[in-house]
Specification:
Elements lengths: L21 H10 L5 H21 L10 E2 L6 H8 L19 H9 L9 E3 L6 E3 L2 E2 L10 H12 L5 E5 L1 H7 L1 E2 L13 H18 L3 E5 L12 H17 L5 E6 L7 H6 L5 E5 L11 H7 L3 E7 L9 H10 L7 E5 L18 H4 L5 H17 L5 H16 L6 H8 L11 H7 L20 H12 L4 H22 L16 H4 L3 E4 L6 E4 L2 E3 L2 E8 L6 H9 L7 E4 L1 H6 L1 E3 L5 H21 L4 E5 L14 H16 L7 E6 L8 H7 L3 E4 L8 H8 L4 E4 L12 H12 L20 H19 L2 H6 L2
Helix pairs in contact: 1-2, 7-8, 11-13, 17-18, 22-23, 23-24, 26-27
């Protein structure tokens, strides 16, 4: 095989939802039956065509494989599982005679149907993207299904492009998979590597036949030390896989990308294989001067793709430093290209769409399109010398200097308050004393509650849009929200829930709502990014020191509590999650920023208590998300993340019951940190993983209140009474009933009312059955 030259500048992936979320709207229309599969496919094809044209206009080559084919209808890990035939047996009925899924079947695997639960969902490394976890067992029948990949390659060829198909690599696919139900004890998906690699070889052959000259295999699992597999086995898998794939004659040239950190000991393992190009994350990973001599020699024959443009954040960044890192790679290889550090999946499309943002702030930012342009600039600099791009480098440096000096970036009052904190600010009274102080809440065994939000109806969204357009006065809007809160309170009382919520109708997003009310933040109009499937969020921009000018939630919580004799939770988003789901300033340690947010929340909790709110939930669903991939970095992260939560809640009275909520995570690795949060009650996503978390809780001796979720709100399924009861009975077998709460996995914002009411009614009925059952009697107390 003779490889064509690797492009001088490229990206690892591009946002796939569309500049105005066209894919989201089309997919949801397909789910609702408003359009058919043909129309959905036409929309997707048009989005792919528009992306190719846009990337070419920004400076990526049309015919040199610079443009990646990184499209997905739902999730790239699901796409890889489908491409190799790794479909759980419960969905075998969806396969045609050739073992293929149509679009409806593809989405059913992602979202579930009837009694068939969807694939589990969890965080994609340390990003705010969620992937679907493949299920692989000893009998999973791998087979190549290259149709979708081949279609995109041919589609591009017909339009005059030679593009680069992107696929999750085989080692990462197996390392991220879980053992299928019924697999024997001790089985690991990586045990199937020898069976899977030939299937990848067949996929590569099909792509070569379709006209692909390069293929990108993403192997981010190689940079993570959080993968539950011996490192030696991972490195052996790397060598085995890429020796076999590299030796195949009928294949495109192979580019292995390893985003989200440093390859460390996997770099020499990859360098020793016959793959033609290696992508190195030089934003979060090791700088070139840290490479060891053995690696240096092995890299000489490779194209080194320098990931020097941060694909994970939206700051314009230091182009001088990026260019220096790219140039430094030339001491290892004569063939160096420039790239983003990760896929641009994690950032919005175009900052030029943000007409409402302050112009000075805009000058500090780079969304996906601006990052592509930066790649093109640096590639030109490598080809023509620094002088050719001196103007662009100087402009980026000037923007950095302007940002550092701008008002609001550093606020003396905020920094002085933080400097004056002592150890007492981070602690509450002893847990047992708090339990006693909270007894007058008079809650039953297995109290039922929800996580916070109720469905955001079309009427709510229209009211918010009308307020923004000036068609409603603020007073009119507030009255509509009060009517919705009253309806939600009545509904919960009718269902028989024990601790109520106000439903959060006034909140556009659990982070943006607070960002709009805190100093130091800005929000976008069109800054959408994909969180999972068709779910998109608009991360706020945290650019300066944070403080709270006025109470943010008290009005709504106080009104809701006035409508019921039952406790109504005050609902706040925690400091770590506010950081994780925002684009955060990169000019100071994250822990410093988290403590600023924590102080603002501490003030809000004090005001809620003064308003008579006895139960306050401070959500931290992203606690696990930001956990560094390298073990050496984890203790410092857990120290500041736990500390910021304790700072936020440390002023709460003993009689105030503090809840927190976590989701989308493998919790075993942070179970000690969850305990150290010292919340009175912790609710945790558990339904989709079938209560796996209770084993971790039991083994760790977790001794605070806990609510493992019994309703997977990321699927349209309504769990039956029997299903919920079985989950609860498993939980009470491991957790004393006196500490066990009953709740959904997450908030109900994205669900419809019919399924929500039916699901909550089933939860209440199942809870009543378990309350009177032998399991509760045996474990109570």
């Amino acid at each position: 095989m003779t490889a064509s030259a690797f492009p001088a500048g490229t990206i690892l992936g591009y946002p796939r939802i569309g500049r105005r979320r066209e894919l989201k709207h089309a997919v949801e229309a397909f789910w609702a039956g408003r359009i058919d599969a043909d129309e959905l496919e036409r929309t997707a094809a048009q989005l792919r065509a528009d992306t190719r044209e846009r990337l070419a206009s920004l400076g990526l080559g049309r015919t040199d494989s610079a443009i990646p084919e990184s499209f997905s209808y739902y999730d790239q890990v699901l796409d890889a599982a489908v491409a190799v035939g790794a479909i759980p047996t419960r969905f075998a009925r969806l396969l045609d005679a050739d073992g293929r899924l149509d679009l409806a079947g593809y989405f059913t695997v992602a979202r579930g149907e009837g009694a068939d639960a969807p694939l589990e969902m969890t965080k994609w490394f340390d990003s705010n993207y969620h992937y679907l976890v493949p299920e692989i067992g000893p009998d999973t029948a791998f087979a190549p299904h290259a149709d979708a990949l081949v279609t995109q390659v041919r589609e591009a060829r017909e339009a005059g492009f030679v593009t680069r198909p992107v696929l999750v690599g085989p080692v990462t696919l197996l390392l991220l998979a879980k053992a299928a139900d019924g697999a024997p004890e001790g089985f690991r998906p990586i045990d199937r590597l020898a069976d899977l690699v030939p299937v990848y070889a067949e996929l590569l052959a099909a792509l070569r036949d379709a006209g692909a000259e390069w293929v990108q295999l993403d192997e981010p699992a190689l940079v993570s030390e959080s993968i539950d597999e011996p490192r030696e086995r991972v490195l052996d898998a790397v060598g085995t896989t890429y020796d076999v794939l590299g030796a195949a004659e009928r294949r495109p040239a192979i580019f292995v990308a390893a985003p989200y950190g440093s390859l460390d000991d996997a770099l020499p393992a990859l360098a020793a294989t016959p793959v033609e190009a290696l992508g190195l994350d030089l934003v979060r990973g090791a700088a070139p001067e840290q490479f060891d001599p053995v690696t240096e020699e092995a890299l000489a024959a490779k194209t080194l793709v320098a990931g020097v443009i941060d694909g994970h954040n939206i700051w314009r960044g230091d182009l001088e430093r990026a260019f220096a890192h790219a140039e430094a790679l030339r001491s290892f290889s004569g063939d160096v290209a420039v790239s983003t550090s990760t896929s641009l999946l994690h950032v919005p499309h175009d900052v030029d769409d943000e007409s409402a943002l302050d112009a000075r702030l805009v000058s500090w930012l780079a969304f996906a399109d601006q990052k592509v342009a930066q790649v093109a600039v640096l590639a030109r600099g490598l080809a023509e010398g620094r002088e050719a791009i001196a103007t662009e480098l100087d402009a980026a440096s000037a923007a950095l200097a302007d940002r550092a000096a701008a008002p609001g970036v550093r606020v003396a009052a905020v920094r002085d308050r933080l400097a004056g904190l002592d150890a007492a600010a981070f602690s509450r009274a002893d847990y047992d004393a708090r339990v006693t102080a909270q007894e007058d809440l008079d809650l039953p065994a297995l109290p039922t509650t929800t996580i916070g939000s109720f469905p955001q109806t079309a009427d709510i969204r229209r009211a918010r849009a009308r307020l923004v357009k000036g068609e409603l006065t603020d007073a009119e809007y507030r009255e509509l929200m009060r009517e919705e809160i009253a309806r939600v309170i009545r509904l919960q009382e009718e269902l028989g829930l024990d601790v109520l919520v106000h439903g959060e109708p006034e909140r556009n997003d659990m982070v943006q709502y607070f960002a709009e009310l805190l100093d130091g933040f800005a929000v976008t109009q069109h800054g959408w990014v994909q969180s999972y499937g068709s779910r998109c969020t608009r991360p706020s921009i945290l650019w300066g020191d944070v403080s709270r000018p006025a109470p943010m939630t008290v009005e709504w919580s106080e009104y809701a509590q006035s409508l019921s004799d039952k406790p109504v939770k005050g609902m706040l988003t925690g400091p770590v999650t506010i950081l994780a789901w925002s684009f955060v300033r990169d000019d100071q340690p994250l822990g410093d920023t988290a403590r600023q947010v924590a102080l603002a929340l501490r003030d809000e909790i004090s005001d809620l208590e003064q308003a008579g709110i006895r139960v306050i939930q401070v959500d931290e669903p992203a606690l696990r998300e930001l956990l560094p991939l390298k073990r050496a970095d984890q203790p410092a992260y857990l120290d500041w993340s736990v500390g910021s939560f304790r700072l936020a809640t440390g002023g709460a009275a003993s009689a105030t019951q503090v809840h927190t909520h976590l989701c989308y995570s493998e919790f075993g690795v942070v179970i000690d940190a969850i305990r150290e949060l010292d919340a009175d009650v912790t609710s945790i996503e558990a339904a989709r993983s079938r209560m796996e978390v209770v084993d971790d809780l039991s083994a760790s001796g977790f001794d605070h209140g806990v609510g493992p979720g019994v309703y997977d709100i990321h699927s349209p399924r309504v769990p039956s009474v029997e299903e919920v009861q079985a989950l609860l009975e498993r939980a009470v077998g491991e957790i004393p009933a006196g500490r066990l709460w009953v709740n959904p996995d997450c908030g109900l914002k994205t669900r419809g009312y019919d399924e929500t009411v039916a699901s909550l009614a089933n939860i209440v009925e199942a809870t009543q059955a378990v309350r009177t059952g032998a399991a509760v009697v045996a474990t109570a107390g």
